[in-house]
Every structure is written in C-alpha cells, then in structure tokens.
Amino acid sequence: MLTYEKLIYTNELGGSVELSLLSDFILEGFDGRNGLQNSLMTEKGVNQIGSTFVNHNIDNRNITLSGKIFSNIEANKSLLVKVCNPLLKGTLKYENTKTGTEKEIPCFVNKCLVGAKGGVTNYAITLTATEPYFKDKETIKELALRVNMLEFPVSIPSDGIEYGLVTNKRMNIINNGDVQTPLVIEWVGVVTNPIITNVTTGEFIKVNTTLSDGEKLLIHTAYGNKKVIKVDAEGTATNAFGLIDLSSKFFDLEIGNNIISYNADSGADESNLFIHYNNQYLGV
Could you confirm whether domain 5-132 is CATH 3.90.1720.10? Predict the structure, then answer.
C-alpha cells in the first residue's frame, strides 16, 4: 500500500474502520487485491491427449489484511474486533486519492485476529467475497433525450402545442470494466408492452404489461437476483416476473460498446427509461 491508498471496511450496521499507512490501523499487507482464480471445467476422452475445454468459472475472492496498531491500543483493538464481526455482512472500499479512484466489494469476515508480539500489537483480517469483482460507483443513463420545444413568450393555439420532443431512442453505453456487468432497468411513465434491446448482441427484454401514470417497472438482470417488479403510484411493489415475454433474455452489458434501444406498443415517446449499472473490475 502507498500513502495515497486506503481501505475502509464497513459492516452492515454502519460501523467502520480505515486501514492505511496514515490511520490508527497501519496497513502493511493487502493480499487478494488482484489475481483471481479461474477454475476450468474440461472433459477427457479415452486416450485423448490433453482435454477438451467445456467452461470456466471465477472462484470467490479471498482477501487478507494485516498490519499494526500503535496508538490508543486497547480502544482500537476493541473497535476493530467490534466492526469486523463475522456475523455481519460488510463492504470493503478501496480509495486512491491520487487518481480519485473508488471501488468496493461486498464481503464476509472469516476471522479477525488481534494480538501482541514483541511489544507490538498486530492484526490480521481474512475476508471472503462471494461476488469476486470490485465495483465502481453506480452509473445511471437516461435513454430518452428530450428537446424543450417551448420558447417564451409562448402562445398556445387551440389545437395544442408540443412541449418537448424525443430525439433519441438508442444510446451507446460503454462498459469500462474488465467483465460483463448486470443492469437494473427502470421504466417510468405511461407505456404498453415495453421492450429494451441490446442491439450489439441482439438480446432483448420485453414485459407484457401496461404502466399507468405514476407507475414504474424495475428489471434486475444479475445472476441469482433476476426479478421484475411493478411499483404502483402509491409505492406498492408487486412481483411481475410472470409478465416477461418468453423470448426475452436477461442480458448484461458486454465489455466495451453496447448499443441499447427501446420501444413499446404505445407510449415509448412519453415514458422515461433509466439504465443503472456498475463497472466491475478484476482487481485494484
């Protein structure tokens, strides 16, 4: 670790500690910041030389943080053990003040050891991240770009006036991360049977439903957390997974360019579509 780098561990109750060269918890070791293990799945036939590749999978990320405590030793020992409670979920945040980089990873504490040796108080924290990628801050993209059609002073004719114009129903969303990344798609406004397409891959998600004024639709595409939620004008959420068109696929953003478009049977121009995602990285 360098002087402009620091780690902040925060548990699910909000307790946190900073680990760095400039904090009370001097950080000397940060193992697991990169170098994920790739597990290969292969098949081998009789008398085959080598094997045949089938698939691969990234294992959990194992992190070990080690260092020393020199000041307020008894109070800081208690604080570290309390914050790094293995019964609580947590988040490890990496900050680089030189580049402005901030990335974080959800994790679990396996063990937090604090002890004295040779008159020096040492600590060692082992963490496991079952979601092994570091993520940056959430990015939100609005696909519908509207141009204001009003000019003042304004005169409204008897047959009405256009207040705005939708100029774009597609956008290039760039995934700057190291791997594919899932989305949360938020559709707001009056619309019938909305469909969103990743033109780059040809994959699409269509929901056979009608949203009324004040309602919204949330589509989560992450593995193990795929869901479709319809929220009414009062904020009541209901499971709308059964409304997904059977030809749909819960797609991710590919690395690099992704041309995303949207449409609907009706209401596409009047509704708003937001894409939420985090770039994901193999290390920091």
Answer: no
